[in-house]
Input
Amino acid sequence: MKDKDPFEDILRKGMLELKDETFTEKIVEQHLQAKMQGEAFSFRQDTFLVSLIAFCIVLSGTCLVLLLSGSHEIFIGGENVRTTYLILLLLISFIAVLYKYLLSVVAGSKLPGPVCYLH
Amino acid sequence: MRSLIDSAKRGDRIALASLIDSHKELAFNVAYSMLKNEDDARDVTQQSFLIVLEKLADFRNEAAFSTWLYRIVYHESLRQIKNRVLHQHAPLDEHMPSHFEVGREASDDKERIREALERLNEHERIAMTLFYLGEQSVRQVADITGFTEANIKVLLHRGRKQLKTYLNLAYDER
Output
């Protein structure tokens, strides 16, 4: 605990007042709004990633069944689609999942956190 | 303070407001001591609080909340000063309100003190503000500003000496 110093009183006398009555309210509003937007964005991103992963799993299962049964084509939406295309689609989806995941990890780690101010 | 921070982390509106209210005046004065312009100081204080609240969930009480806040205010003020230089804004002294002009007779105590503070150099002023108004220890002031503790002690010594001279105080320096 510091001893009482006369300079403390002097500096307190010279303190400026923050002349903005809505200052606190504005910050709280901005913060809560940004938080809601962030959560909504994060939810959309997560939903997209989960959908992509689910699509990959279904596609993998289909390809596996086709390969095991020895079929080279599958009847989808009134047309025969070659298994090779399905495997290609699976590869592209897998790369998309990986890219999306890495992107979210990198974006998360680049955010300036309190650590950069604490250390 | 810890329970207030925990409530604020959960997004409690009252806790957030209390947290801001209990620190805003000092944070504003810290920013002003560097920027010497009320509008800029208010903007920097606002920005600093937004950063603090955004990162509050990651705050693990490793440092005092006020020290963390002042460090952010300090760095945001530095960023603002850099922006001024980059955008070829007017030099700092031109932002000073006219009533701080040297040689003007101060009308009351508060103005006299502010005028004296304005005459200190930036580093002395920020060290004095953080030490006396922000109630930070020498070590904490060093942590915030990046200076060594010895530097801070020298800055405080010079600041006190100069303030004493400017204000023509009778008491002895500690």
